Amino acid sequence: MQSMASTEPETMETEAIAENTNNHSSGPGVDLTEKQDGGVLKEILREGEGEDRPSKGDKVKVHYVGTLLDGTPFDSSRERGEHFTFNLGKGQVIKAWDLGIASMRKGELAKFTCRADYAYGESGSPPKIPPNATLVFEVELFSWEIPCDDLSPNKDKGILRYVLHASDTYKTTTPADFASVTIKYSAKIDQQVIIEDTTTTFTLGEVEDPKIVIGLETAIKKMKSQERSRIVLSPFYAFGKDGNQELNVPPNATVTYEVELISFEKAKKVYEMETPEKLEQAEIRKAKGTEFFKKGLTEKAVTNYATILEYLDSETSLEGGEKDKRDALVLAAHLNLAACELRLGNDAKVIEHCNGALELNKDNSKAYFRRAQAHQNRKDYDEAVKDYNQVVALEPDNKAAKNQIIVCKKKLQEEHQQEKKLYANMFSKMTQQTAKRNDYSADSVFKDGIGDWNNDMAAGMMPLDQEVAAFGEVMPLGSDNNNGNNHGH
Q: What is the pTM of this model?
């Protein structure tokens, strides 16, 4: 609506309105201005419901009647028969409105007396609003919509944030991994409370409290100090397909957290560290990552291992012992990240990290084996066979790799037979050509005398007993194999 438009810059004063007004009082007017200069006076005509108020950015819906100080009307949404909507605190209306509506509760009816410097100023808004005019608005707040941010890594709406109260600070910093944070939070499923209001302090990326799920940590890293938000998490980012019996969380439950970031202490940035400190911190992250991996907290393991690469990827000009230590840590990070991503089912990332490991050590059998598993999961059996063959070339006694070669060749044979059948049905003339494909018969794949066996390790991570069979060690070990070949957990 044209007469309500404003050229005022975006204001932050809407964030502090609740502190400057008492919505349960009445009288000639409560001063809503930050300076308490009498520029916007509020009188409640009808109480609202609840205690919630709209915040900066919310899309509010109101009815209003505007008059000059002598009672002359100049605009009314009621006469037009349609609500007026705008985004609060964004400078879309006069300054008095950004202040006044932020103080209201749902269903409230209030009168605002607005001095010219909080309205249309010295120029007014001709022809209906004269220069230097004090205006009176009777406003009814019907509802507001909270803007939603999708914070999920894949933008699958698995982590949705609704800001209930924006930060009162002008600082734009937010906590990163390994920052110490203090939050007040609660959680519920539908209307059932599963976590009562509680205050806790922990380190992002290291917390083991089962109530602090991965989606909540992700959201906290986007919050500013003193912000209060509602976080809606899909099962994948909350308690997963198993739920949590102790908290009475059923399987596949969507969980809603309300969280206030009370304060945080920033973790040291990479660029603030010298090389020795980076190496030291990388060792700490490696140990933490392995600890989380052993406990099945794979996402937290990923966070810690990935930080090693953040610390050391750019440290390419080191020499001597520092270079050896750096290369060993980066190699271990890539291998361990590959193991984690196998467990999480992210085969493309497995291949990426195995490639990174092989750039550092072209004869690393673990990198070939894990890359082969990823190819196998993707049904790219030819590439899987190539990588398993590399493992056998490096480790002739590796039975796990030999077994998987058989599995892949059998799969290739099945695909070949399906193709033959398809082409025979569709194009009888092509049958002879397709029959000349490579021979992946069962006889040929069993010629090495391995014999019959039962193997179910192709999907995802290898079972630990088969890891032992493949490499003679239990993964993760928590320390590097210093022979320069199979650095890992």
A: 0.58
